[in-house]
Amino acid sequence: MARTATWGVLALLAATAPMAALAQSPQPAGLAGDWSGTLPNVPPKQVIVHVRRNDQGMKLTMDVPALGVQGIPIDQFGREGAKVHFAMPAAGVAFEGELQPDGREIRGTFTDHDIVQPLVLDYTASDAPPPPLKVAAAQAGWKTPSADEIRRVLTSEIDAKQAVGLIVGVVGPDGRMVVAQGAADLGAAAPIGSQTPLYLESVIKAFTGLLLADMAGRGEVKLDDPVDVYLPSGEHLPELHGRRITLADLATHTSGLPRGEEGVSFEDTIRKSPDQLRRAMEAFPLTRDPGSAYQYSDIGAAILGDALARRAGSSFDQLIHSRVIGPYGLSETETRATPALRARMPMLYDSGMQPRGRGPDSSDAWIPAFGFYSTVDDMLKLLEAQLGYRPDPLAAASARARDLRRPIGPRGEESLAWEVRRFGGPGAQVYGVAGGSRSTATYVAFRPDTRTGVVVYANSPLNVSDIAFWVLTGRPVPPPQPVAPNSGGQAAVRVSAQVLGGYVGRYRLTPQMVITITADGERLFGAVNGNPQTELFGASPTHFFARTANAQVDFQPGQDGHANGLILHLNGVAMTATRIAD
H/E element holding 519? Predict the structure, then answer.
């Protein structure tokens, strides 16, 4: 679930060296100037697109101020009447929209691989030279920040209401350092620290990848084995153009399988068994050859773990403990949260600092994808082994898990266990794994050339990788973003299940974007193009708001209570959607 609220590959672009020269393409006049909008991420992120006319056609570049990056070349751009599109195929990023009649607004969708979000771009006249290319690079001779410097960063995030509790653990040539700030639970003013049990979600994917590398080294499996070999007789995963999905495809998120099951709520998905997950994917229509392109997939990780467990004749829970967790000596790491463990865990908070429980209860099928509970102390043990500060019981598997890689963007890759980012050259490589959702965030990473590792945890959806990259490379941490309106203080009112039932359905917002509204009793949810659901809270029987973005929805019910349309208010812009016939 780590990418449900992340910036995806554009965050990776902020870590790259200069890219290829900007493409030129003749286009009709009328768009030259600056176009800016805000993506409803957590926290929201502004995007600025600079369009300039020259002798060869149009130049486009993009800035993302929150990431400290500017002048990213946009190498594909086109316009057909009111329809406008641009793309960066190497990064898996694209925008499609429609120019409004006043010529000062483009409404459309921004796609980052499999994550689709609405984006409205507003026009500002400008013919000034756009900012030059600026990307992150590791500072030469960078030294790990002191505890006081780290504490100041954590305090600024908490004071800006971006987090309730934060922990940073560092390991390096000078030993260990742990800095904790804030609380595990606002209601109880409970402290948070290096031995606090934490829900780390998708961090377990690194362990699943290490397990695969270890089993390959033992000759129990081959990385290029089709997954079907390890499924029950008669079962199979989808294939395309004769290319079958392999174990390595699943580990590197290049199988082509989706993040989750489209049209199924997260609450229902996490209750599914391994058999149900596999059967749900048998007829999934792949849109690209397996192994050819990156697309983050929780379902793929879950199926990988199930296949490895079947090969070993064991449950995945037993297998990951005996082969990885146990050998590394991670005594405080679990794959299930007992009631006693859960009682000691931090409360989790959404972006409006509203409590959201202590983590979901999921079935065993999801342990390989996001069933993971540990402490900062245990994660530092793992990093110490990866960096050579203590013996690595899986040394050969660790090396294999780093070596096999598939590309993510221009200078980023996904290995069997880690996402690999390069900061300004081949030497400054950061290996990391993220865990996060709409109420928690973790980043575990290490840099082999400086033998430095870091663990950053927040019990809120803060972009903690920014803090990790600062510790490892010196890339500045963007200033805290303001809390979105309606995300914190607004109280929700009860709306009956009967009323909500009249809103359930699909609504077309743009030619590229459909909003699906579902209900579970007296709870209402919205999802864009099959993306993860966002809960909508009632301010009145017809007006609802999100707590994870600056978004509100007004339903337009008829006399029978059946809504024929809705109005989405996103970052202050109103957009009308019409119900699609079932």
Answer: strand 513-520
Give tens-digit pLDDT for 123-169: 999 989 998 887 667 788 899 999 999 999 999 999 988 889 999 99
User: Reduced to 3 states, what is the DSSP secondary structure of residue 228?
Assistant: helix
What pLDDT digit, counting tens, does each position of 503-520 carry? 999 999 877 788 999 998
State the architecture of 497-579 in CATH terms. Beta Barrel (2.40)
Question: What torsion do the CA atoms of 490, 525, 495, 356 make, to the nearest 10 degrees?
Answer: -50
Hey, what's the torsion of the CAs at 26, 45, 118, 546, to 10 degrees? -170
Give me the residue label for tokens 């809270």: 537
Helix axis angle for 204-217 and 298-312, nearest 10°, is 40
DSSP 3-state of 177 = strand
Q: Which helix (H) or strand (E) holds 74?
A: none
CATH of domain 18-124: 2.40.128
Residue-range domain boundaries for the chain: 18-124, 147-473, 497-579
- The answer to whether 86 and 93 are in contact (CB under 8 A) is no
What is the Cα–Cα distance from 68 to 158, expressed in whole angstroms? 21
DSSP 504-515: -EEEEEETTEEE
CA distance 140 to 213: 33
Residue 71 gets the label, from left (phi > 0), alpha (psi -120 to 50) or beta, of left
The number of residues making up the chain comes to 582
CATH topology of domain 147-473: Beta-lactamase (3.40.710)
Report the relative pairing of strands 523-528 and 534-538 from DSSP bridges: antiparallel
Task: Give φ, ψ of 261 to 5 degrees.
Answer: -85, 120
Alpha-carbon gap, residue 368 to 323, rounded angstroms: 14
* Residues 105/97, Cβ–Cβ less than 8 Å: no
Give the integer Cα–Cα distance in Å for 330 and 158: 30
